[in-house]
Amino acid sequence: MRSIRVELGERSYPIHIGSGLLAEIGERCAEAGFPVRSPLLIVSDSEVAPRYLPALEAALRDYGYTVVHHIIAAGEASKSLAVYEEVMTTAIQAGLDRRSAVLALGGGVVGDLAGFVAATYMRGIGFLQIPTTILAHDSSVGGKVAVNHPLAKNMIGAFYQPSMVLYDLDTLASLPARQVSSGLAEVVKHGLILDKDFAYWCREHAAELLALQPEALGYALERGCAIKAQVVSTDEREQGLRAILNLGHTIGHAIEAVGGYGVFLHGEAIAIGMAGSALLAVKLGRDKSIYDETVSMLTSLGLPVTLPAEYSEDELMEAMMHDKKFKEGRMTFIVPDDIGTVSIVDDVQASLVREVIAQLKKEGSPW
Amino acid sequence: MRSIRVELGERSYPIHIGSGLLAEIGERCAEAGFPVRSPLLIVSDSEVAPRYLPALEAALRDYGYTVVHHIIAAGEASKSLAVYEEVMTTAIQAGLDRRSAVLALGGGVVGDLAGFVAATYMRGIGFLQIPTTILAHDSSVGGKVAVNHPLAKNMIGAFYQPSMVLYDLDTLASLPARQVSSGLAEVVKHGLILDKDFAYWCREHAAELLALQPEALGYALERGCAIKAQVVSTDEREQGLRAILNLGHTIGHAIEAVGGYGVFLHGEAIAIGMAGSALLAVKLGRDKSIYDETVSMLTSLGLPVTLPAEYSEDELMEAMMHDKKFKEGRMTFIVPDDIGTVSIVDDVQASLVREVIAQLKKEGSPW
Ligand SMILES: NC(=O)c1ccc[n+]([C@@H]2O[C@H](COP(=O)([O-])OP(=O)(O)OC[C@H]3O[C@@H](n4cnc5c(N)ncnc54)[C@H](O)[C@@H]3O)[C@@H](O)[C@H]2O)c1
Ligand SMILES: NC(=O)c1ccc[n+]([C@@H]2O[C@H](COP(=O)([O-])OP(=O)(O)OC[C@H]3O[C@@H](n4cnc5c(N)ncnc54)[C@H](O)[C@@H]3O)[C@@H](O)[C@H]2O)c1
Ligand SMILES: [Zn+2]
Ligand SMILES: [Zn+2]
């Protein structure tokens, strides 16, 4: 088992990564400080629950816990205030008290929703993340929890740290291949922003990662989580540095918004976005190799790096202008200076971004 | 103008109390750190907005702020997730950004709802309280924000401190007399738990307080806020000491739940609850004068101290058992040791509480 600690003063917590961890859930909940007399609520989704919920509940009950569960429909649409209220109803009816905890068993959707429930039930109770996607190595670390508003994604939420993250690699075996690549996009992103060696390591071990080979996967998730944890420790509430985690996300979010959620998976959209950021870097005078290397890393992981022709430049630009990352109307981008280093560039001209979007539509090298 | 500071480390904030403060709102928002380029959202209700919103908006616009407002129907029913979502929609449509703030202009309902919006819009933006009821001297200090779930009051919320509380005494002039007495119940509660002299001072100056005489009122709100602030500073997240603020609330909440919200106002219900706590104290061996003095203080402020005969003991007991203040099934009460001092008593027998409830129905002295 690999363990990392997210350093956040009195809100610090451990991340455990390894095989067979679900069986230890009782001990882990006790270690996290949840008393056996207070009921636990597991939130999971319709894809994950049939596979892993029975064993998890059995292990908790064996340990002496009272457990209830709430299963949401798989997919982004469940990250809504309506579903949030339903989970709250389950929590109240089950008699969760102030020492109870919510356990998120699933991907980022389950984690974000369950985390917002934990943050706001009786003004905050215990919270434990059990991520079952690769992408959730990102969403389960850092304490951002949220639901969507019909007008904007992740608009309603809080900063709320879990007491622990328990990453059982065995649960990843059932993950569809496209979800694997999508999750690896955020893994390699962590290399691209802060760790050159790790970014190259990802490309070298791409085949093992795509095959979910435990040794490579365990290392990749450990490094990914560790880099994210390091950034979050420095800037818990996203006042500055934490913005670098948004590499590729401004364009990526616009692609998701314009294409409709689910056309591109999140990791696929930000892979195109990271290719776009690399293009922007070159336009701003950085070395052309940044673009070539970025694209080669992403394609080695089975990720897209070009934009289908039907995406309208006007609509993408419009979507970006509404993105919450633009304080007071200026356009801010995370721009690579090299593989493994980025800058926050504050006043990127909209015309340059439009050029990047247009070039992202060209197959092959855009030069 | 009187000013108090709530000491909470980097979340510390000032409370300003005085006449004519609404006119200074622009300067105050700047002092609170809200940039003029980010839109402000004022939340108010249908009773308060017609009286004070136009002047407030005008003062903010004069200062250079962009202002939008959202007016809710007056009353507890607006403290719901449905109304919360509507306010969120207004905030998004108005383009509130991460440096924007929500201003709560109203009583505790507006403050609790608007505070929960501020706490969770984009994971937390600025928040300023402009209380317009006496009761809100209590709700605007301490950072508890919440909405109700159909199954339980204040069940969904957060701890979220405002940047400032601006208490303009002039707005209290339009407050209905019953609301004045109800608010004074929480004022005298602050004396009963921690300040004997202040509790007696309230009885002595009851007539001036009921007449909203500015000098007496200003002092009473200052002392009330200061005592609340002192407790909150020691125990921001209600781990221990803060429980003493619940004097009278266990019985009071049960009365509100059984009678239906709005039959008794909150302060009226907790006045009966405080009489009940004093009765309990005497049953547990404390001096009988505690009950007599408590009742005399409450009646001097126009508050009820007995329970109408139609309230069922069974239903009240049942409601108390469901109260969130009972960890793991035991009954906890805040019991006065004297006027101005209380203890947290952990294992009060249910039969004793039932006796208290029965005696609260007797008119005049229960002995
Ligand atoms: N909080 C954050 O910091 C943060 C960061 C990144 C992304 N996110 C959020 O995370 C969400 C995306 O996360 P995601 O990609 O994990 O999405 P997801 O939770 O929707 O999971 C993707 C799909 O895989 C299925 N699935 C999950 N685990 C499985 C398993 N082990 N076997 C088989 N199927 C499985 C799910 O049912 C779902 O259909 C988005 O809502 C995004 O906003 C949050
Ligand atoms: N957050 C906390 O710590 C805390 C503490 C105590 C109470 N509360 C909450 O506060 C709420 C009760 O507060 P409240 O008593 O202020 O209720 P309220 O906000 O409903 O106000 C009472 C009534 O007075 C009207 N009103 C308000 N100001 C007025 C004015 N200046 N002139 C004329 N009418 C006016 C309102 O429209 C309403 O009809 C409850 O929801 C309770 O849960 C919260
Ligand atoms: Zn992402
Ligand atoms: Zn109260």
TrEMBL record, chains A, B:
Entry GO CC: cytoplasm
GO biological process: amino acid biosynthetic process; aromatic amino acid family biosynthetic process; chorismate biosynthetic process
Pathway: Metabolic intermediate biosynthesis; chorismate biosynthesis; chorismate from D-erythrose 4-phosphate and phosphoenolpyruvate: step 2/7
Keyword Amino-acid biosynthesis appears in the UniProt entry: yes
Assigned EC number: 4.2.3.4
Range of residues in the leader sequence: none
Cell location: Cytoplasm
Cofactor(s) listed: NAD(+); Co(2+); Zn(2+)
Domain 3-dehydroquinate synthase C-terminal: 183-325
Family per similarity comment: Belongs to the sugar phosphate cyclases superfamily. Dehydroquinate synthase family.
This protein's name: 3-dehydroquinate synthase
